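B., you asked whether I could sanity-check this one before it goes into the benchmark set. Here's the sequence:
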Amino acid sequence: MNKFNISNKRLVSHIAKSFEISLGDIKKIIKNFHSEMLKGLSGHKSSLAMIPSFVDMPKGNETGKYIALDLGGTNFRILEVELKAGGRIDVIAEDKFKLEKEIVTGTGRQMFDFIAESIKYFLHVHKMSLSGEIDLGFTFSFPLNQTSIAGGILLFWNKGFSASNVIGKDVVALLNAALKRQGIDNIKIAALVNDTVGTLIAKAYGDSYCDLGVIFGTGTNACYPEKISKIKKARGLKTSTGYMVINTEWGNFNKLNCTSCDTKIDKASSNPGRQRLEKMVSGMYLGEIARTIIIDLVERKILFNGNIPSVFSKPYGFDTKYLSEIESDNSKNLMIVKNLLIRLGIANAGYTDSRLIRNISKIVVMRSAYISAAVMAAVILWMDPKIKRIHTIAIDGSLFEKCLSYQGHIKSVFQKFFKDKADKINFVLAKDGSGKGAAIIAAVASRL
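And here's what the prediction gave me:
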């Protein structure tokens, strides 16, 4: 197929229009987000859990060596971290481990046993003693009801995890039991940390302007320091500053306009009705959104002459990493797109097919970035309605890091929305911040 007819052009234009996020939409998202924040902090039903983390912002003078376990997806890391005065953080040792699908979908005991075995391996390889107490910060980036600095009940799984007998249980107790089964008695889990909280704390350790931590990777979430007086649902909370970091769990925010494509993906997911924002924004789902659109166009014989290439035939077979490569191609001949399609086994894609795939990728990525910018703006305005202060947003995650246009889209939204005050809001890549942050929080917790 070399040319579109009028109806095909209208169809593609309709797709673009349905994914468009206008300035008016952004204002509506911010208003609804604030309403959900207020309800969540008050203990009323809300799509934002607004979970107290029992963590205050760091002072920057914490010191010592700590272990951090960073569990945020099917790859998890174990680190030995040394904190030095003046906000310096040195990673002494680090190993990465993979949780295979059969482990994350098996039993909770099996999963935590594997994690404990990995910790034992780490201690052995890096010649760390099995005697003498070692404080560990445990980053667990799944929705929790945090009950203390070192305790939290799993509310529900996401990111493809479904390990049994974990929901409703204290994950620190489960890990402690697994460590004991491995004969490890000298590790004290000093702090349980959401990855977003870890990212914020790690950056704030050396940057006093940092007051928003965000993850844009496989999943998405954010946290910020809140006045304890505003956390109405939890009485008796105390910190030295009167503030406590709140884990918003914004991936579950549901006041968004969904397309038929979003609805289809949600219904087919393992958690229908949940994590609406995450399913429109995060790296786990963007490739699937694009694939769903592409399949529809193939079935209408607008793409690939009506023949479905194998890479698009299987759910989640079209990885989000391909989107960032495709949508960055602004060349006239679209060679980046064509070469990628060849690598994916599509050797006969013409210019029209390549252009359509490129445009679909741009549409999906841009909507993700615009929604992300809107909810970040909502939290900044909640903390500082007139933008009187400087704000640093610490952002971690492969989507933000590797999708070249993502930062540009966010900047564009900030400039349009905040105008001359946009210069007061800076965002920085806080790579691997969650593990370092867990070590800092462990240091604070052990000192207290």
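One thing to flag: The chain has a mean pLDDT of 90. Otherwise nothing jumped out at me.
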